[in-house]
Amino acid sequence: EQYNVQNRWLYKGRYIEAVKVYKDDTGCGLAEAKAYIDNLRSEYGIKPQSSGQGCMVAISILIIVSFLIFL
User: Fold this and answer.
1) Cα 26 from chain centroid?
2) Distance, first Cα to last Cα, the chain
3) DSSP the chain
4) Which has more confidence, 36 or 57?
5) Which residue, among 56, 67, 60, 48, has the nearest Cα to 10 in the 3D structure?
6) Is 28 within 8 Å of 22 (Cβ atoms)?
7) Residue 6: is its pLDDT beyond 80?
8) Most buried by CB count within 10 Å: which residue of 22, 50, 63, 66?
């Protein structure tokens, strides 16, 4: 059951929840739980979700607005 709960969170891209579930279920430390989930993620080829795209849009808008102000 524990294995299935972790995998469900991991496949949904919910990395932190997967780490929490493993940590709570095993009583291990945070570093060990993170290492275990990272290992699962690499074993199954699950790539981390990137949140950088939203930041890039905000930076681009800021640059354009700054450029227009200084014209």
Assistant:
1) 21
2) 62
3) -HHHHHHHHHHTT-HHHHHHHHHHHH---HHHHHHHHHHHHHHHTPPPPP-HHHHHHHHHHHHHHHHHHT-
4) 36
5) 48
6) yes
7) no
8) 22
The pair of three-digit structure tokens given for residue 26, joined into one six-digit string: 């095993």
Q: Which two tokens stand for residue 11?
A: 């496949």
Two structure tokens written together for 65:
């607005």
pLDDT tens-digit profile of 20-46? 988 998 999 999 999 998 998 888 888
Q: How far apart are CA 19 and CA 1, in angstroms?
A: 15
Which amino acid, 25? Answer: D
